[in-house]
From TrEMBL, chain A:
A GO CC annotation given for this chain: cytoplasm
Membrane-spanning parts: none
Annotated active site: C175
Full protein name: Ubiquitin/SUMO-activating enzyme ubiquitin-like domain,SUMO-activating enzyme subunit Uba2,Ubiquitin
Start-end of Acidic residues biased regions: 556-574, 625-644
Keywords: ATP-binding, Metal-binding, Nucleotide-binding, Ubl conjugation pathway, Zinc
Record-level Gene Ontology MF annotations: ATP binding; metal ion binding; SUMO activating enzyme activity
Lineage: Eukaryota, Metazoa, Ecdysozoa, Arthropoda, Hexapoda
TrEMBL record, chain B:
InterPro entries xrefs: ThiF/MoeB/HesA (IPR045886), ThiF_NAD_FAD-bd (IPR000594), Ubiquitin-activating_enz (IPR035985)
GO MF term set: SUMO activating enzyme activity
PANTHER family: SUMO-ACTIVATING ENZYME SUBUNIT 1, UBIQUITIN-ACTIVATING ENZYME E1
Protein name, per record: THIF-type NAD/FAD binding fold
Pfam family, one: ThiF
Domain THIF-type NAD/FAD binding fold: 23-294
Family under the similarity heading: Belongs to the ubiquitin-activating E1 family.
Gene Ontology cellular component terms for the protein in this record: cytoplasm; SUMO activating enzyme complex
Length: 713, 301
């Protein structure tokens, strides 16, 4: 090991390397590289933590793992693996979540340096706050495809992870998902909801209709109906792709002024078909009968898994072949019905799993740069720790590894690292509940783990269960939180404090989110000119207070929203880069994650065909339900009466690309993009991807951009 | 030829379901076609110190068809600074052979071979057995001969070295740019270095000249004398006026250090793979990683 060889380091550094205790958070793609480098350099005191287990798709880059180690904890396995080439290093491995309260200040204070090799925003924010609170230097990193970045974070010296806002994922209105899908991604989200509704834990986002049992005339939810029918694949196929579509079509006005309209499948398939598909390549587009067979077979396999499940439900996982087949088949059958382009298994998996492409070389470069930064940090040369970017292709000067000119100073308005910072929370105080505030604002957006919330000295949320505060169902106004109220939020664990100013704001447009955060009250009104985007042609509704369901699709590892591909590090720093300007934030990236879909609002169509609010909800599917206000009537928000009036308008404007071949074979033709080139269409998820380039820059990022918001390490 | 074959590779051009799963995240970057091309590729890798280990790791993980690890030397104590494929207590063993087991473990689908014959003793057609040749840790005279030979046979060549935390590589993939000894003409001490080049170029030239004169790379044991020697070489370059600019580099030029073997190893492996992914950087022929400036830059020299 280098530190044991006199002369390998400057004399002053030799002992520093041997004795400095370092925490590595994450033992994935970047983590494996960093751990190897640290051990080879002779760092003698290391701790590594990771909450994941090894998956087969990790093996192309997480080289400390082999096929035999699939299923084992990454942290322990990585440790054992590096001890094989250097048995003389002291490594403590933790199989756990860094956000767990047991890794508090006392834990962090042991370290001279913390290195983040994470794949999600939440954990990154958390470690950022812990390091700011304990005043420990942090090296933050991420890769995506060919690109990556390394960032140095030190309290009062540099930008912190949260100094620059991170993009919020793209929303999809729920009515599009249910009634008027236009793009493959809409069908994919629908298919994942369908999985959740039939097999998952959380059955709030219903996409399949209630069904009447013949004998009893009792209305059963689709889940119960499926159970009552013993998850018979053919019956489910008929229900979902014939009966449910009939139901939609019977709502006359639903498609009245729209070019989008479902077209029923040929009845020859009504009782299912048999068509072999197992031999087909994943990049190939199959035939309708093949997808129908796949659907029916997947139901059979998933039912067996459901029966064996101790929990009584299943969590969707892109790496489970049966689950994936279910989503591929459901997506494509629905796409046929709605005249949407069919996608290959390979492409649907990218979108459904938000997979970020990942290669060993980018991780190795970033892993090397992290350790060089680590040496500079331990030498105390903070100004030499500028953010470093790995570009997908060289710029015109031939540079492919580029740094910022200087270490960026902390943002004075940062709500995390500056005491001056405060947040303006714009909400409708008459409808926004304390629970929404905690779940959506504090936990999901601000990544607070254990919130204590005070308003004028009065506690409204407590991290201590013994306090037995139960204001969750109250709206802000009911809890006397009004326009101008100052809310003080404190996370004891993260030593994070933030002041919030409430700004009451009625919703004037439907695509507005439930809440918005601003740094300045003046910004609130500017934002009122909303970009109407595509929601307009989708579901245009008159009137004031209507809300839609928004569906957000994000990566997540574990139950949290996690694996955002990180876009998230993407920071203002880039402006300083002379010609680089790109950038990816390469965040993370990891694949061992589950996708979760969040719904921030719920819309419903009621009897008089206006859209009306059904208690806003927050739901994560299929993740853990933190959400108890599971309104029963929300389940019924699917009903539209036939004889309804017409204030439900959908603008036209979509092309009529609606064609299904009716020939007996049931083949349908769709442009074959089965080359398997990485291609993700503009499913709108691009927002997740922070790739910006100047014209001089090359193709490759464009590719990555398309590949967008998928995710690695 | 003294070689060991530890495993049989997969069939050329076909990806099994298992391989598709392992390679999934990279296929999403370079496509099934890219992966298939890669899986038909035969690589010769010369030099199995830390840098060679990194290059081997990346290419094996990505799934080339075969890789031949060629190194005539025995394991040295300095290998412990960056060579993670060699188990401890391998001091008396040949480097390539000592690396073989762990290299193979990285990916059973790749055919990994150890070869202990020096490249200088191979006949000139030897390189034609490979789609690409990557050489590390040889002497400049060996690089010169190898480059001429590969050029003649139109075999793509990468040459790379790491000195402490500093590293560079030269690529000859279009067979149009200068040859290695034209870029770094100091291998025989007669010619002088080029003008108007970036700092890392002169640093590399000095390091290569040091290697020619002392018959070794700068060494941690003798770091103080070696730094003096390097300084005197650099000051002998007429083009250099600001000798102090090099001071920050001198403390970190001894033995191969893992962060930079990691960076250069990945740069070389990716640049090599890019030649079959239509993503080649053809306008440049030399790459330097400057560890003081955190800069990785291509040049045409």
């Amino acid at each position: 090991m280098a530190a044991n060889i006199v002369g390998a380091f400057k004399p002053s550094m030799q002992n520093v390397v041997k004795t400095s205790k370092i925490l590595l958070v994450g033992a994935g793609g970047i983590g494996c590289e960093v751990l190897k480098n640290l051990v080879l350099m002779g760092f003698g005191e290391l701790e590594v933590i990771d909450l994941d287990t090894i998956e087969i798709s990790n093996l192309n880059r997480q080289f400390l793992f082999s096929k035999d180690s699939v299923g084992k904890p990454k942290s322990h396995t990585a440790k054992e693996s590096v001890l094989r080439f250097n048995p003389n290093v002291n490594i403590n491995s933790h199989y756990g979540d860094i956000m767990d309260t047991k890794y508090g200040s006392a834990f962090f204070n042991k370290f001279k340096l913390v290195i983040n090799a994470l794949d999600n925003k939440r954990a990154r924010s958390h470690v950022n706050r812990m390091c700011l609170s304990c005043d420990i230097p942090l090296i933050e990193s991420g890769t995506m495809g060919y690109s990556g970045q390394v960032e140095f974070i030190k309290k009062d010296f540099s930008l912190c992870y949260e100094c620059s806002p991170k993009p919020v994922p793209k929303d999809y209105p729920m009515c599009t998902i249910r009634n008027t899908p236009k793009e493959p991604i809409h069908c994919i989200i629908w298919a994942k909801f369908l999985f959740s509704q039939l097999f998952g834990e959380n059955t709030e986002e219903l996409v399949s209709m209630e069904e009447t049992e013949d004998e009893t005339e009792e209305k059963l939810s689709a889940r119960d109906w499926a159970k009552a029918n013993n998850y018979d694949g053919q019956k489910l196929f008929k229900k979902i792709f014939y009966d449910d579509i009939d139901y939609l079509l019977n709502m006359r006005d639903l498609y009245k002024s729209k070019s989008i309209k479902p077209r029923k499948l040929d009845y020859v398939y009504l009782n299912g078909v048999k068509s072999e598909y197992a031999h087909e390549e994943e990049s190939k587009i199959l035939t309708l009968p093949q997808y129908i067979s796949m659907f029916i077979d997947s139901i059979t396999s998933i039912k067996e898994k459901l029966d064996q499940s101790k929990k009584g439900y299943l969590n969707w996982d892109k790496d489970d072949d049966d689950f994936m087949n279910f989503v591929v088949a459901s997506t494509n059958i629905r796409s046929v019905i709605f005249g949407i382009e069919i996608k290959s298994h390979f492409n649907i998996k990218s979108m459904a799993g938000n997979i970020i492409p990942a290669i060993p070389t980018a991780n190795a470069i970033i892993g090397g740069q992290i350790v060089i930064h680590g040496l500079r940090v331990l030498e105390g040369k903070y100004p030499r720790c500028q953010t470093v970017y790995l570009r997908g292709m060289p710029n015109h000067k031939g540079e492919i590894i580029v740094k910022d000119k200087i270490v960026q100073k902390p943002s004075p308005t940062c709500t995390t690292c500056s005491t001056e910072g405060h947040i303006v929370l714009a909400v409708n105080t008459f409808t926004f509940t304390i629970r929404q505030f905690e779940d959506l604002v504090l936990r999901q957006r601000l990544n607070i783990v254990a919130p204590d919330v005070l308003i004028d000295g009065r506690m409204i949320i407590s991290s201590d269960e013994d306090d037995e505060l139960d204001l969750y169902s109250k709206t802000f106004s009911e809890a006397n939180i009004l326009h101008g109220s100052k809310i003080s939020v404190d996370d004891f664990l993260q030593n994070y404090r933030v002041q919030m100013l409430v700004h009451h704001k009625m919703k004037v447009s439907d695509e507005q989110p439930e809440f918005e955060l601003f740094n300045n009250s003046d910004d609130v009104d500017k934002e009122d000119d909303f970009e109407q985007e595509e929601y307009d042609d989708e579901c245009h509704i008159d009137g004031e207070d209507h809300k839609f369901i928004y569906v957000k699709q994000e990566e997540s590892s574990n139950e949290e929203m996690a694996n955002e591909s990180d876009e998230d590090n993407f920071s203002s720093v880039e402006e300083e880069l002379e010609e680089t300007e790109l950038f990816v934030d390469a965040g993370a990236v990891n694949d061992a994650s589950e996708t979760c879909i969040k719904i921030t609002n719920v819309c419903s169509i009621t009897e008089d065909n206006t859209l009306s609010i059904i208690e806003e909800q927050s739901a994560e599917v299929p993740a853990d339900s933190q959400d108890e206000n599971n309104e029963d009537d929300a389940k019924d928000n699917f009903e539209i009466e036939d004889d309804a009036k017409d204030n439900f308008e959908i603008e036209d404007g979509a092309k009529d690309n609606f064609e299904i071949e009716d020939d007996a074979k049931g083949d349908f033709e769709i442009e074959d993009d089965a080359k398997g080139d990485f291609e993700i269409e503009d499913d709108g998820n691009e927002t997740n991807l922070e790739l910006k380039r100047k014209a001089e820059d090359n193709v490759d990022t464009t590719e990555t951009k398309k590949s967008r918001s998928s995710t690695d390490e | 030829m003294d070689s060991e074959i530890s495993n049989n590779g997969a069939d050329v051009g076909k990806l099994s379901k298992d391989e598709l799963k392992v390679y999934d995240r990279q296929i999403r970057l370079w496509g099934h076609d890219g992966q298939k091309k890669l899986s038909s590729w035969n690589v010769l890798l010369i030099g199995l110190q830390g840098l060679g280990a990194e290059i081997a790791k990346n290419l094996i993980l990505c799934g080339v068809h075969s890789i031949t690890l060629k190194d005539p030397s025995d394991v040295s104590i300095l290998d412990r600074c960056s060579q993670f494929l060699i188990p401890p207590d391998s001091e008396q063993r040949n480097r390539a052979k000592a690396s073989l087991t762990n290299a193979q473990k990285l990916n059973p689908n790749v055919k990994v071979t150890a070869d202990t014959k020096p490249i200088d003793e191979e006949d000139e057609h030897f390189v034609t057995k490979f789609d690409i040749v990557i050489a590390t840790e040889c002497f400049p005279a060996t690089y010169k001969k190898l480059n001429e030979n590969c050029r003649k046979n139109q075999v793509k060549l990468f040459i790379a070295d790491v000195f402490g935390l500093f590293g560079y590589f030269v690529q000859d993939i279009t067979f149009e740019h200068n040859l290695y000894h034209e870029i770094f003409p100091n291998y025989d001490q007669r010619s002088n270095v080029s003008e108007n080049c970036p700092l890392p170029y002169y640093l590399t030239s000095a390091l290569l000249r040091f290697q020619c004169e002392s018959n070794r790379k700068p060494n941690p044991d003798t770091c103080e004398e070696d730094v003096e020697e390097l300084k005197s070489i650099i000051s002998s370059f007429e083009q250099i006026t600001d000798i102090e600019a090099y001071d920050e580099y001198f403390g970190e030029l001894f033995c191969e250090m893992s962060p930079t073997t990691s960076i250069i190893g990945a740069m070389v492996a990716q640049a090599a793979m890019n030649t079959i992914m239509d993503k080649t950087v053809e306008d440049f022929n030399v790459f330097f990683y400057d560890h003081v400036e955190h800069r990785g830059q291509y040049f045409k020299l």
